[in-house]
Amino acid sequence: MATLMDVAKRANVSKMTVSRVINHPDMVTNELKQLVYQAMKELDYRPNLIAKALVNNSTRIVKLCILEDIDTTEPYYMNLMVGIAKTLDLHQYSLQLVTRRNFDIGNCDGYIITGMRKEDLDWIKKLDKPLIMFGENRYGLDYVDTNNKAGTYKMAKLVLERGYDHLVYIGIDSKESFEYSREAGYIQQVQENQMIPELYRFDNHSHLAEEFITEHWKEIEPNTAFICASDRLAMGIERGISRCGGSIPDDYGVTGFDGVFLSQVASPKITTVKQSIIEMGSACGENLLDKINSKMSQGNLIFEPKISIGGTLRD
Amino acid sequence: MATLMDVAKRANVSKMTVSRVINHPDMVTNELKQLVYQAMKELDYRPNLIAKALVNNSTRIVKLCILEDIDTTEPYYMNLMVGIAKTLDLHQYSLQLVTRRNFDIGNCDGYIITGMRKEDLDWIKKLDKPLIMFGENRYGLDYVDTNNKAGTYKMAKLVLERGYDHLVYIGIDSKESFEYSREAGYIQQVQENQMIPELYRFDNHSHLAEEFITEHWKEIEPNTAFICASDRLAMGIERGISRCGGSIPDDYGVTGFDGVFLSQVASPKITTVKQSIIEMGSACGENLLDKINSKMSQGNLIFEPKISIGGTLRD
DNA sequence: TACACAAATGTTACCGATAACATCTTTTTA
DNA sequence: TAAAAAGATGTTATCGGTAACATTTGTGTA
Hints:
DNA-binding, 12 helices
């Protein structure tokens, strides 16, 4: 691998001139610049990032802390990582994955954190490097997220337009901020239409939603739609209705939230609030790198979700 | 952040002594070692990995090349990454994710590659750093994988024991090595029982398997079991049978392969050949790091799969 | 023409670690 | 007991870059 020195010798200039051609090209005459470019090309020169990092006292590492249990989780995070990695690679940063099992925070230039619980706030606040949260929070930490409230608000609207006259919300039984926002979107839409909200909450497992349906099947009138806080729950609801002999989408509607994977595998495909996780991941990375290079980026980045049409709502 | 120098001053020794305490502790007297340890503790010293990397002319970066399309993929790769990342972090390496969109190979100490196609062989052979493939291959590249053949072989055996007398294999329509191996396992088991193999192949999408069932329902006799090459296909088969009014597991059996996520979400849960991807990822990382430090590890690492019992086979 | 000042390039020191060699101390051996 | 060998520690150079300062060259002005 060619070094600065090799290029310098070949171009008959000093190392600094080469370094300047790269970092401050306006301080070098065109003549020398050409020589240097030529030499760089001939030697296929690539700067040594490690050496650069050493002088800058940086690590070129970003830690991605996924604090939720990954084992049972949707491909959601995979997409997130792909998005983040894409940006980081572009700027020649690399990634370290931190999980609760694997809890090493140190030796990095910044953090992206997701799935935090309240008790994590302590150590997070102590971090002395730039950080950005993935997922809304109410602790004043900068974050990137979907506009959760708008997602369910829009979806509920769509469901009403499709003529279902009974809207039930199936939520995730958790105190996280995103859940409150999703509930709020549903509630607002329903109230604007002079209807009474009806909410149920479960752990995020399809079979719980399925059981809910089968156990309450007698009480569930046709023309009801279920607005679910996740595709997983939606899948359970869908399966429950099918099992009880209900007809989707004619008599019952179902909608999900995420649009990463499950909504596609379900049958019929779930009409869902689609988050473009890859894009959000990229933005997240971009944002963090800006902070690291103190281009003063701060505040939140909210993405408007889109509705992805499947076969669980009638036309 | 404290440096070697700081520790050295505090302990009243030279930098080299401190360095030796860390890397060649047997060359330093106990007395000095204690002093140095003390100083390190007081200053909370952590070696600067970047500086270390510079002298070793290494990057401490491993590239994970996922050459398959990730967008539509199961959480499989997420688990893989978690496994790899776990090991790498332990050894203070970090990860860069390479995809086809994002194709930067360079500046790293080694590669883990998965999802390669035949045409990738060219550039892969040219890589001048240690590499290990995730997933079996027949190009002589070292790999880590499940014992695919044993997986379907065992599964077919189990299915026979459970009394199904007609075994159909539902494969993935691809020329990859793992698929051939899975087919081979099924075929061998079936032939050992004087039965005639019956194989179908589809792209790895649940709805294709589902359609297959609904379209051929008349021809499918009760007491048939479907050995599928993936959980996705199994899910489709399962749904197709349910839709046609068939009873699982009483009249029909279904088995999958992977056990990462879908098998859990399906209903009933799929009896599947479970791969412990996280473990395999760790092993993969470990193996690569050994190669990097030229502890001469080479050859393949084959994991014996386990059968994970769901509700798609009768007792 | 000479001097001041700006622009272009080169030199040196440094980032934080380690290897190789140098020096000093202790032990072994004849 | 002196010389050689072994053991413990320190010094220097180095990895590949960049910042800060030093030097050279060129230009404008009196």
